[in-house]
Amino acid sequence: LVAAELGGAFSKEGGGVYTWVKEAFGSRWGFTAIWLQWIQNVVWYPTVLAFAAGALAYLFMDPGLAEKGSYTGVVILACYWGATFITLAGTNVVSSVTKYGVLLGTVLPGIMIIILGLLWLDQGNPLQFMAPGPDVAAAAKGAGETANAHLFPHITGLGSVAFLAGIILLFAGVEVHAVHANELESPAKQFPESMFLAMIIIFFLFILGSLSVAAVIPAEEISLTAGLMQAFSQLLDKFHLGFLTPLIGLLAAFGAIGGVMSWISGPSRGLLETAKNGEIPPFMAKTNKNGMQVNILMIQGIIVTLLASLYFVMDNVSVAFFVLSAMTITLYLSMYILMYAAAI
User: Fold this and answer.
1) Is the CB of residue 48 less than 8 Å from the CB of residue 224?
2) What is the mean pLDDT of each run of 10 residues along the chain (344 residues)?
3) Which end of the chain is more exposed for a tag (fewer CB within 10 A), N or C?
4) Global pTM?
């Protein structure tokens, strides 16, 4: 709602949250907001590309690869730098890749996993999320009680709260595209409409899609990076469609890469506005012949490369994924506090 309102109100200006917060609190706070949005995004790239690596493992018919840090790190670096060089070709190229990435790599697999999940339910198969986990079962047995599944998350400390905050990442980012609002024919009308359309699609795809995964895979066995493909593999085998698993892996990876491309140009575009206004060193305002912020993208790539090295040094891929996700959420929530304050 806030992104739709501010995006419509300042639709004739670029900069996104930089412009919104600057109008309310001055250029330095505006810079802080866009920097937080940019840096959280840089931290997020390795997490979403780790998901792409997990999906590609199923394309190669070797699910075990998804748990290997070196494999995940190499895929992250290859995909990220490939996406960066495609982004340098200009906005038109990026929009084409992201459009098909969303349709073929996110919407199509999302609809498929929901349909397969409904078929799983219709055939009377057990719903794994309704079964108590091993910890709950052990605690109930010790207390001499019957174990029951928790329909609501079991909050055991700050770690649990941090995990729940990850849900915010489902919707986080809808405001990023405000930097392109002035490229629309009727931004004041079309930008809010696109916000609501995105919200509806995200809600149904992620909620129902996640339920389908949780229905098939026991909670303690779900991989943070390859959970979707675990569910696809089991469901497709169940309905004798296992030959489609590699194709789904390819599509899911393509969707993740398309998502990264839509983000590579977004927040860094807002940072470009701050460079033009003298908030950061002038050399970062340099653009190539396609109007893309080349120096910012290169610096961004170096930071992503350093963060991706976590996957080479940490034994557990899911732990590296969670550490980076928690960092992303913390930085992003700080930016949203400024965005909401600017709206008020």
Assistant:
1) no
2) 80 77 92 88 86 87 83 91 85 78 88 94 87 65 63 64 66 70 78 84 87 88 83 92 91 86 75 80 85 87 91 82 83 91 94
3) C
4) 0.74
